[in-house]
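A protein record pairs a chain with a discrete description of its three-dimensional fold. The following entry can be read in just this way.
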Amino acid sequence: MAAAAEADSFFCFVELLSGFRDHFCKQLDNSNVGIRATITRLSQFLKEHDEELWRHLEITTKVNPQFYAFRWITLLLTQEFNFADSLHIWDTLLSDPEGPLETLLRVCCAMLILVRRRLLAGDFTSNLKLLQNYPPSNISHLLYVANKLRSQAAS
């Protein structure tokens, strides 16, 4: 059905973005569906899975998640990874039965965990630079770690 490929692709794209539309409404910024709430959920997710790293980032070095996670979430990680890796991530976002937002938050948390050692050794400046210029990563391993976070949350 090559003739329907463009329409099917557009439908998938609209479905993906419709789940994130509330992040772009200023009136919803402070609501439970706005971007601030989503960033807070990411912070809580990290705290649940790696409290030491959460404490170092948010309390010791005062790296507010809004400084890096806003771009990660609103641009669906397209600025952090090359095109092929972004497609792999988006394929995962679209195919996860828990939905794209939950999957995105797990991927973002996994990104933090993968650079944990460097973050724990860093100060405000070095950590912010690292998170705003995320290093090249093995996407398959990143998605594996993100998937493990799902199973850890279930147990």
The two ends are 42 Å apart (CA to CA). The longest helix spans residues 139-154. The chain is about 70% helix and 0% strand.
